[in-house]
Design a protein that fits this description.
By secondary structure, the protein is an alpha+beta fold. The chain folds into two domains: 387 residues, 4-Layer Sandwich (Anthranilate synthase), CATH 3.60.120.10; 213 residues, Class I glutamine amidotransferase (GATase) domain (Rossmann fold), CATH 3.40.50.880. The protein contains 16 helices and 28 strands.
Length: 635
């Protein structure tokens, strides 16, 4: 404990103790104290990672690093700071609590930078102008509470840490990080990504149940778990993080859960995703910038929407803390919580507590305003800016252990695709007729294409994914998939123009083509079918539809749809069979000679019949070569 005592002694003498991090990880009865030197780097790839065993670097990754992926952001200049760890000590929790300052944190001038009415107006615009125009399924817009800390800022941060350690529960990391240029203090509920022994894990969390005191109301919690909006919100972030896992794990991510994460003011629903990977951990960080729970989906366009509607940069909000190192065998390790429920304090005592709300098609401005207040409650209480939660939260009575709560959570998996929930040996789903055949997926700015690649690969195809901007020839592939993406299919943007040209080339050549979501809408337009904006967006919506005589349960992420009056259409490339909705004529799928399209996402976790749909379409688009039995004949 003398290391912490020395640090606090220097602080009491009015001295800066130097850079350090003091953090408690979920489930431990100790805190890690890291000390060292701070350096600033430009890129994630530049984060220092010496080969010695143990934690090597703690990186403070700001939101602006998303520009490394080519995504839009308001550039506020927040630096990527790295604490190069020279010394690591484990300190007992009880001793830390005895040593940390106990004086209450005092602040003045506390107020949100964006008032409730203005924030509600922003929410309304995003719902109407973005989700309502097909730009995505969900978006997170943030606001920041600002105040001025009275007294020494670092002392206030350590006092806040003590308060969080005694009053909060369920946090993934509870921490103070001091670099000299800034101090971060918080209790993040959410692991963003971790790597240990080659196992990559992510932790999508969504849905917020607000309560007061130490024990939530059981009946109210059960109503929350049955709420459609909350359930769909979790499904959407699950899909989005599965997209990320598709890029960093060899076989994508397996879904485990859902679970209930109980905290002192809130409860959340969450899943765990796990998969094996071999990428450098800095590349894993880059490919997973940033969590959809704090940005939206699809990710690239969510960043554009955030940049359009947020008038200031996010600094470290929605970025990550990232602890990088090596294990005893020399394998790289990573542990990275999302920077939410976190306060940033400047050396002059300026305090920032950013919070955000997830906007989906069911959202209302008033409810999302309330959610930002609730999410801030835990941090605000620790900083003396809100009602204090009682000491020692009741951990003995966990509602997550209640049989009805467990049953309600388990029921959430009933409508989901088993492809992402079940383990299976490699090759278990492969179709013999597809062995050795190659597929190209053209990504229209929605990394659902990564999940689609895993499904097509599981069926036996060798799959390549390319962005829509890539102009290399495509006809060397046995199948070309023109994939999903945001935007209005009737527009004349460069993306829409290029994708139409690609589809025209494939149709003219009679080349086997599958079109998904946006690709399907563009294909329908080329076939002469009108495409309309839906009155109510189908974003994150699961439906049972009839596809060419067979009922299928599938998931939609769409604001636009083609429509037709009959099941048959004579187009410029021959007769087309349509699977359409009897109520409004919406075309859910179509097929013709050498081509097919689906409006839904067969790869989505919301599509329990998605793999069966792909199997049926591939058997038509890529029949067994002459002289070979088809899979149906073999059966």
């Amino acid at each position: 404990m003398h290391q912490l005592t020395d640090l606090l002694t220097a602080l009491a003498a009015g001295l800066d103790p130097g850079p350090f991090a003091l953090l408690r990880r979920d489930g431990t009865e100790h805190l890690d104290l890291f000390t060292g030197t701070v350096t600033t780097v430009e890129r994630l790839a530049d984060i220092p990672l010496p080969a010695a065993a143990g934690p090597a670097t703690l990186a403070l990754v700001p939101y602006r690093q998303v520009a490394e992926r080519g995504f839009a952001c308001v550039d506020d200049g927040a630096p990527l700071e790295c604490l190069r760890i020279d010394h690591h000590h484990q300190l007992p929790l009880a001793g830390v609590l005895d040593a940390l300052p106990t004086a209450p944190v005092r602040t003045t001038g506390a107020a949100f930078d964006i008032g409730d009415d203005e924030y509600a107006a922003i929410v309304a615009r995003v719902l109407a102008d973005e989700i309502g125009h097909g730009e995505g399924a969900n978006f997170v817009i943030h606001r920041t509470l600002r105040a001025q800390v009275q007294g020494a800022p670092l002392t206030a941060a350590l006092a806040a840490l003590r308060s969080l350690l005694t009053r909060e529960r369920g946090a993934y990391w509870t921490f103070v990080v001091h670099t000299g240029a800034r101090t971060l203090v918080g209790a993040s509920p959410e692991r963003h990504v971790s790597v240990d022994d080659g196992l990559v894990m992510m932790n999508p969390i969504s849905g917020t149940f607000r309560h007061t005191g130490t024990t939530a109301d059981r009946a109210a919690l059960l109503r929350f778990l049955a709420d459609t909006k909350e359930t769909e919100e979790l499904y959407m972030v699950l899909d989005e993080e599965l997209k990320m896992m598709a890029t960093v794990a060899e076989r994508g991510g397996q879904v485990v859960g859902p679970y209930l994460k109980e905290m002192s003011h809130l409860a959340h629903t969450e899943y765990l995703l796990a998969g094996r990977g071999t990428k450098d951990v800095r590349e894993v960080l880059r490919e997973t910038m940033f969590a959809p729970t704090v940005t939206g989906s699809p990710m690239e366009n969510a960043c554009r929407v955030i940049a359009r509607h947020e008038r200031a940069g996010r600094r470290y909000y929605s970025g990550v803390l990232a602890l990088l190192g090596h294990d005893e065998t020399g394998r790289q390790t990573l542990d990275a919580p999302i920077l939410i429920r976190t306060a940033e304090i400047s050396p002059a005592g300026e305090l920032r507590v950013p919070v955000g709300a997830t906007l989906v098609r069911h959202s209302t401005p008033a409810a999302e305003v309330a959610e930002t207040h609730a999410k801030a409650a835990g941090v605000l209480a620790a900083l003396g800016l809100g009602p204090q939660a009682p000491d020692g939260p009741n951990t003995a009575h966990r509602l997550a252990d209640d049989p009805q709560v467990r049953a309600a959570l388990a029921a959430r998996n009933a409508p989901l695709a088993r492809f992402w929930l079940d383990q299976r040996p490699p090759g278990a789903l492969a179709l013999p007729a597809l062995a050795g055949r190659r597929a190209l997926i053209v990504d229209g700015e929605d990394t659902f294409t990564g999940m689609l690649a895993h499904q097509l690969g599981a069926l036996g195809l060798s799959v390549t994914v390319r962005p829509w901007q890539d102009e290399q020839p495509v006809r060397a592939y046995d199948l070309v998939v023109v994939g999903p993406g945001p935007g209005d299919p009737s527009g004349d943007t460069e993306k829409m123009t290029r994708l139409r040209a690609l589809l025209t080339e494939l149709l003219d050549a009679g080349h086997p083509t599958l079109a998904v979501c946006l690709g399907h809408q563009l294909l329908a337009g080329l076939l002469g079918l009108p495409v309309h904006r839906r009155d109510a967006p189908y974003q994150g919506l699961q439906r049972t539809v009839t596809l060419f005589g067979t009922p299928r349960r599938v998931g939609f992420y769409a604001t636009f749809t083609a429509r037709a009056a009959t099941e048959h259409h004579d187009g410029p490339y021959g007769p087309v069979e349509l699977a359409r909705d009897e109520a409004d004529g919406a075309v859910h799928a179509l097929r013709g000679r050498g081509f097919a399209g689906v409006q839904f996402h067969p790869e989505s976790v919301l599509s329990p019949d998605g793999l069966a749909v792909l199997t049926d379409l591939l058997r038509e688009l890529l029949p067994a070569p002459a002289g070979e039995l088809s899979p149906a004949a073999q059966a």
